[in-house]
Amino acid sequence: MHIQFIHTILYVADQQLSTDFYTKLLRRNPELNVLGMTEFLLAENFKLGLMPNSGIAKILADKTPHPESGTGIPRCELYFYVEDIAFEFTSALNTDAKLISDIQDRTWGDKACYFADPDGHIIVFAEKLH
Description:
23% of the residues lie in helices and 39% in strands. It has helices at residues 15-26, 53-60, 85-94, and strands at 6-12, 32-34, 37-43, 46-52, 77-81, 98-105, 110-116, 122-128. The longest helix has 12 residues, at 15-26.
């Protein structure tokens, strides 16, 4: 398998609230923002999408639990390697991201801090320790 592009989509309770949150957190406007989908191009081969729980529920039908039953429960982790972790930490605090864990050296070789978005998805900012 050769992966050409990665598009990660988070299911959210309130598309506008999440769009505003990620616009501020990422310090960029969405590339697409229409009813039912918001997309941020974060790297040449990576896009982050935001889809309302109600929209994906129509696609999933009754094959899985309704996505809103997971709102507030950490369902994924976005792990971002950044150039200046202290700057990103302060920036995230200013977006009203929920602080989960301060900047710490981690046993896997990263310095990282953890936050949660309005839906409970985990956001990590990290730098390599070496």
